[in-house]
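User: Quick sanity check before I run a bigger batch. Here is a single chain. Can you write out its predicted 3D structure?
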Amino acid sequence: MSDQPADPRTLTDDQWRERLTPDEYRVLRKAGTEAPFTGEYTDTTDVGVYRCRACGAELFRSTTKFESHCGWPSFFSPLAGDAVIERPDDSLGMRRTEVLCAACDSHLGHVFAGEGYPTPTDQRYCINSISMTFDAGDA
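Assistant: Done. Predicted structure follows.
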């Protein structure tokens, strides 16, 4: 997104509202959640790279996506350890770990561990489809 400043973390709330749809803004900037089983990437199996919808940063590769049957796209690892930020989230009266884009601090979803999925990391990055775009063939 060439019209954005070099550091998207410097954008004001009004600038984010101008760049994102109301639903994108609600999820990406206000830590909302899209309804389960409604996102465009929930069942995607194409090869490629998932990017932050707000800033375009690379987040996940299709090779780490797996079917968790939870209603949101699930990945067992981000593209690189520094692609996302993980921070405690107690917003629903329980301890969860929020996942944010490291490049622009936009909310992506949550990560869960120890659920027993047969993945190399035993982690499930549960990510809102609306928080991402997909570039096919870039994996």
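The mean pLDDT is 91.

User: Great, the batch can go ahead then.
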